[in-house]
Every structure is written in structure tokens, then in C-alpha cells.
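[stage:ingest] chain + small molecule (pyridoxal-5'-phosphate)
[stage:ingest] validated
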Amino acid sequence: MPDIAVPHIPDPQPTLDPEDWAQTRALGHRMLDDMIDWLAGARARPVWQRMPDALRAELRTPIPRQGAPMDAVYADFQRFVLPYSSANEHPRMMGWVNGGGSPAGFLAELLTGIFNVNCGGRDHAAIEVERLVVAWAAEMVGMPAETTGILLTGSSMANMVAVLVARRAALGGRVRAQGLRSAPLVAYASAAAHGCVPRALDMAGIGSDALRAVPAGPDHRMDVPSLRRAIAADSASGLQPFLVVGTAGTVDTGAIDDLAAIADVAQGAGIWFHVDGAFGATAALSRQLRPLLAGIERADSLAFDFHKWAQVPYDAGCVLVRDPAAHIETFAQSLAYLTHAERGLAGNPPWPRDLGPDLSREFRALKVWMTLKAYGADGIARVVESGCAVARHLAARIAREPELELLAPVVLNIVCFRVAAGAADLDRLNRDVVADLQEAGIAAPSTTTIGGRLAIRAALFNHRTVEADADALVDGVLAMARRRSEGRVHQATADHRHPEYPA
Ligand SMILES: *Cc1c(COP(=O)(O)O)cnc(C)c1O
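[stage:predict] done
[stage:export] C-alpha cells:
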């Protein structure tokens, strides 16, 4: 080191930092106290309440010219935002696929905000933490130690990145400069695959029509003989099969494709094997459930989320790619202003920006690292197993209720059922019952369609959900359905209906 001291310059004023940190400190402590009370009180509150129209209108101000004291800004958060959450914190949030967050995760988010590093690349510790978390993810599913990966907003982007890597692997580096040039690429996924898979093909310029929806059986798993036939037929007609997507945990029912059989087909046909394990891959942490995912370790790439079953706060998706060269060759660019240096802050390649579409990125890895360190793989495995146990309890209760009908097998933590009597239009009745439960704040399941019939869908992802919550859901469904079939319904006010969904 040259004998030159680091300069000392007193803090200039004014900056955005306060002259005296005491107020910031006090407000920060108060916010944390308030938010911990809010979280601890979740169970005692209605699951959801709609933000009133008048408040939405009041929120819409022009950009403020003058600043306001931070206390006043915080008061606005408490009035406009806090009471009208998406309900992820609540034990009876059972809709879609939403994680509940956790103390380790929210404390990490606080650190991330203050630390404010840019994880596009360069030589700093956060890059090492992200590499470690990626290595843990590979270890979780049994992919090789040299597997590369990055954290992204979610599985939608992770699936997109995997499609781009598979596209370059199929067509070579030229596709990055020249585009598809009408290369007749085709891809395969089960009919139960998530909508972000066709969208990834759309965004990759391949087109969603290039995705063959392979039929799923009554167990909602991909029919592998159909996959084999589709690949053979497409190859025979001069198309270029390049990608097969297995789903580990379908969004509708939680079905897990036979990943080992799909891996065999992909290997035999010489095409890329990608797994969408958005939530299901997390089940690999459970020794009891790991066998259901057999074959996931053979994936060329894997997309999954830490923000779903692993309870990391939003957002935290992850893509893993087995072949580091294939991954880097999809995204790396040589740009004068972003050159890797041999030493100094610009060292330490490859950078996350060489592995995905983003340059500036937040430090997502911190909340994943701290969550896994705080609870351990076993702690998250217990959450996963408990969600499955509550799902089995719910399914058993549904089987005992003559008015209810189970619509799909329960493999993991998702239960699809419906009220099977009491109205001519049962789809309508069940849709209304779900909205009734949400508006009453009792529980928030979502809906889907199973075999052409509208299903009430309860997905048990929140670590706070217990069997009594599942019973409260069933009690609520029965009460709302009886109220409707007996004509004791208050018509929802116009205020409660979105113009696109008229009464
Ligand atoms: C949630 C989900 C996705 C999309 O993931 P995001 O994190 O919401 O982008 C994709 N596939 C499956 C099976 C999912 O459950």
C-alpha cells in the first residue's frame, strides 16, 4: 500500500442526511415497534379489507414540491397503506401462492435498505453472499456444486432466463445478435404449467404458439408418452424441439410431474430439461417429501422462489443453470464502462449482470441467507411439512361434509374443492362464496377451474396457518353458501365491484 492516508473531510451540510440523527433514530425505532405490533396482531384482524375509493382518490396528489417531516410521511403510510394489505401476513390468507414472510426476513430487509449496495457486480461481500445462496439452492435440489445462478424478482423471470439460456444453447451465440431468423423452435410443458412459461417464450421472441401443451392425466401430471410422441412428430415434420419444462408443483393443484421420466425423454432427444419448481422445489428441504421430486437434480436449469414456501419476504426468485458456460454465454457482454478489472472494486468476475438481464440489482441474497441461517433448512422443512399436514386435515374435513366435494388429489399443500349443491349455477355460487369470505375478512382462498368446474382453492403457504384456520375456512364456506342458497344475501355494494366484473 502506498503511504497515503484516507482523507478526512467533515460531513458537509445540507445533504439528505439529517444534521442530528436522533430524530431518524427515534422514528426508526417507533416504526419497527409499530410494525412488530401489526404483525403480532394479524390473527385478531380481518384477513383483508378493501381500500375505500375515497381514500384511493385522496392518495392521488401531484408530485409534492416541498418536502414534509418524515413523521408526517409515516403517518400517511399508516393511514393510506397499512390497513389495506394483500393479506400475506395473515394465517387465513390461502389464495394464490403467497409466502408469509418472517422476522429474520424483515430484519434483513431493513439492513438491505440501509446498506444499499448494487448487486450488479464488482468486488464486495454481497456478491459472495449471493454466490453462497445460489450454492445452497443447488445443494438443496442436488445439482452440481459448479451450478451458476442468480436471484431475480420471481419465477416468472427465472423461467424467462432459463428459456433464453436454452434458446442460445439450441441456436448458438448467433441468436444473440441475429435473433431467431425463423428457426423453427418448439418447446413442451404440461397443460398444467404456469402461464409465465408461454409468456417467457413470447418474450424470448419464440412465440407462445411454439409451446406444446402436453396433456396431463387425472393426477394433473404430464403424460410422458404423449410428450415422447409430440417430440417425435415435431422432429419428423422438420421442427426443432429445444426445451421441455417439467413442473414441480403445479399452481392449480400442486401436482409434481414425473421429473425423472421427463429427464430421460429430454436426454434421449438431446433437448434442454428445465424445471419450474416455483414453490415445489422448496419441498426438497424436507427429507419426507424429497422423493416426490426425484429427477429434479438432473435439470439443466431450475426456476424457483424463496418468497413462497421458504417465507423470504418479497421478492426473491432464483434461477440455477447446470452448465456455467451456457449461462454466461447467454448474457455476458463486453462494454468499456463495465469491464472486469484484475484488481480493485471492478474485480471479481463473473458478475450477476453476466448471468441475467439486470444490471442494477438489490441485495436480495441477504434476506435469503439470514432466513436460512436463522431457521435452518430443517426449520423451513417443518413449515413445508406443516402446510401439507394442514392440507390433509382440510381434505379430510371436506370429505366429511356432504355439501362439499374435493376436486383434485392433495399432493402437497393445495386443496381444490367446492360447494356441490344448493344452486343451479354452482360455478357462480362458489365464486360468490369466495368473494363473500374475502369481503367478510374470514379467509382468503382463491379460485381456479378444475375439469371445467370452478373450484375454491386453498393453498397453505403461510407458516402461521394451523388446522383451526382450515376449519374456519370450511365453516365460512358452508355458512356463506347456506346464506346464499337461502336467499339471505346482502347484495355487495357497487363500491365493492370492479367495473370489469359487473354483478
Ligand atoms: C408462482 C409461480 C410462478 C411465477 O412465479 P413468480 O414468483 O410469481 O413470478 C411460476 N410457476 C409456478 C408453478 C408458480 O407457482
